[in-house]
Design a protein that fits this description.
alpha/beta, Rossmann fold, 8 strands, 7 helices, eight-stranded mixed β-sheet
Length: 216
């Protein structure tokens, strides 16, 4: 059974002080290739000076920092106040919002962004939840031509996920919903979303989502 929101908040508040050490080590599941994944999200977002970018699940700000360095106007949302405190200490120019992106749209956020990005967050939602969130963000909160770029734990196929489970065993959380790329792309197409995917490491890859004609 997946964790509820309260359990997620408690988990990330407890993890906040050790998060950067874990991800920057880049060793083992799921963070081998972490920096390369964030770099690829940044490149595929195609954002530049003045672009309005929302980082969903900003955490301690590692992805957001890349967009600040590009001269973007960056907002970040997260459910963990402790994660946000660490992000605030790093990135004073980023507008930070405590909230749940899957819930009601926070009044502190602008209605629309040129790009929405996220890293290692969407696997907390099951596939219908992932796709519903992507649809809502594209439809209601992206400017025309805007895109969503998501880096996360993912493998190309169900067979690959089975192999990953055999390889990583107890390191994988049974309460998480890891992406299967071909399944996700097919579901997005049914919802009228253009989706592409590339594998970046043995554990993670990057999706690009854009609005497209609805499949009849």
């Amino acid at each position: 059974m997946a964790r509820d929101k309260g359990e997620q908040v408690e988990l990330f508040d407890r993890w906040a002080d050790r998060y950067d050490e874990a991800v920057h080590a880049g060793v083992g599941f799921p963070f081998a290739g972490y920096e390369a994944t964030l770099d690829r999200v940044t490149a595929l977002a195609e954002a530049g000076p003045g672009s309005r970018v929302l980082d969903v699940g900003i955490g301690t700000g590692n992805l957001a920092r890349r967009f600040v360095d590009l001269g973007c106007c960056v907002w970040g949302i997260d459910i963990s106040s402790k994660m946000l405190a660490l992000a605030r200490a790093k990135l004073s120019a980023v507008r930070l919002v405590l909230g749940d992106i899957a819930g009601e749209w926070p009044s502190e956020l602008p209605d629309r962004f040129d790009g929405v990005v996220s890293a290692y967050v969407f696997h907390h939602f099951d596939l219908p939840g992932k796709v519903d969130l992507v649809v809502r963000l594209l439809r209601d909160h992206c400017t025309p031509g805007g895109r969503i770029v998501v880096g996360d734990v993912c493998v190309p196929t169900e067979t690959a996920l089975d192999g990953l489970r055999r390889k990583c065993g107890d390191q994988m959380d049974e309460e998480e919903h890891y992406w299967i790329a071909d399944e996700a792309i097919a579901t997005c197409k049914e919802s009228g979303i253009r989706a592409s995917y590339e594998q970046v490491s043995g554990f993670a890859g990057v999706f690009v989502f854009e609005a497209g004609p609805r499949t009849v």
